[in-house]
Structure formats: C-alpha cells, structure tokens
C-alpha cells in the first residue's frame, strides 16, 4: 500500500543533492547522527533540529504537493551520501492512510500542512492493543525508535496533508521505511 510508488519515486534521487530550504536541516541532522548515540536519543536530537528548521510545504514542487488520488505519495528530498539518513516528504489526500506498521530505524516527522491522525499500538502475542491517538497539526514534530513504534497514520482532514519524515537510513536504498505490516486484530 504505497510502497511501489515510494520505490519508483526514490529511484530518481541523486544522493547528496540538497533542495532549497533544507540546507540548515540537513546540517543539523548530520550533526545529530554524527554524535553516534542510541536510536532514541538520536530521534530526540533530530526532533529538535526539525523543530528549528521545519520547512514550508513549498520545499516540495507544486506537482509533488498535489498528491495522488489512489494512495499517499513519498518523495525523497535528501539522502545522505553515506546512507546515514534520509529526508522524505509525504503527501496525503483526505482519507489516505498507511497500514499498521513499524519501522526499520528511528524516525522523526513534522507536519507542514493539514492533519495527520496517528493511531498507536502495542504488540501483545496474537493481537495489538490500542495505545493512544494523536492528531498532528502543522508545526507538530514527533519521533520514535524501535521497538515501540507501531502505528497507523492517515489524513483525517478534508484537505491535502504534507509532512516531512527523517529516517535513520537511506530508505531509497532499502525500498521502504516499513519493517513489518501488522494484520492482527486490535483490542481495547
């Protein structure tokens, strides 16, 4: 669900290119990653950098900001040449969502436009437990690191939502940030 489009869009990226509006963010994330601390602490530090340097929606081209009527879109905006991190723009039309999933590495995200509704889960044997919900609005920044990063995200608004996601790997090299999709029943 969205993974094929993610792969094809990433194939056009030239590693190391920095789009206008991202230079300070890239520099800040590089500094955080180069500290070589654990994933949770890295996510916290990168979250601070994203708060300081959260770009505007026009960091994506006008065409990229339109989205796709069939599924959310993922646009790689930057990939570190050494594969240490990547910055991705996600564009969600109303109602579009991810499956319930976890990640291959730490992730930090910031909402640029619209509303991203996030449902959090905990894996308990043969089912998932609901662990909370967040409505992330423009300017909101959050992050997490495995384990404990199971969620589903959807655009719950009536306009296009745009967010920036920073991952602790070059996801264009591994095809997706998703480690596992969960198709288990959800309780409570």
From TrEMBL:
As given in the record, the signal peptide range reads none
Specify which residues bind Fe cation according to the UniProt entry for this protein: 101, 103, 151
What does the UniProt keyword field contain? Dioxygenase, Iron, Metal-binding, Oxidoreductase, Thioether bond
Source organism, top-level taxon: Bacteria
Cross-link 3'-(S-cysteinyl)-tyrosine (Cys-Tyr) lies at: 107-167
| Keyword Oxidoreductase listed | yes
Which Pfam families is this protein grouped with? Answer: CDO_I (PF05995)
Gene3D superfamilies per UniProt: Jelly Rolls
An annotated Gene Ontology molecular function? ferrous iron binding
Protein family per UniProt: Belongs to the cysteine dioxygenase family.
Q: What is this protein called?
A: Cysteine dioxygenase type I
Q: Which species does the entry assign this protein to?
A: Actinoallomurus iriomotensis
Q: What is the lineage of its organism?
A: Bacteria, Bacillati, Actinomycetota, Actinomycetes, Streptosporangiales
């Amino acid at each position: 669900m969205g993974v094929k489009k993610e792969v094809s869009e990433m194939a056009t990226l030239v590693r190391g290119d920095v789009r206008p509006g991202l230079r300070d963010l890239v520099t800040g994330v590089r500094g955080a990653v180069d500290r070589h601390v654990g994933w949770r602490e890295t996510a916290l530090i990168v979250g601070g950098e994203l708060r300081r340097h959260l770009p505007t929606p026009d960091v994506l081209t006008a065409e990229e900001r339109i989205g796709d009527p069939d599924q959310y879109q993922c646009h790689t905006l930057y990939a570190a040449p050494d594969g240490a991190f990547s910055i991705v723009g996600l564009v969600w039309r109303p109602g579009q969502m991810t499956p319930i999933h976890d990640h291959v590495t730490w992730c930090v995200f910031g909402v640029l436009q619209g509303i991203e509704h996030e449902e959090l889960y905990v894996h308990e044997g043969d089912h998932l437990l609901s662990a909370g919900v967040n409505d992330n609005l423009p300017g909101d920044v959050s992050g997490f690191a495995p384990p404990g990063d199971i969620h589903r995200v959807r655009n719950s608004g009536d306009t296009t939502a745009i967010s920036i996601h920073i991952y602790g790997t070059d996801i264009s090299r591994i095809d997706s940030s998703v480690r596992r999709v969960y198709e288990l029943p959800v309780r409570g």
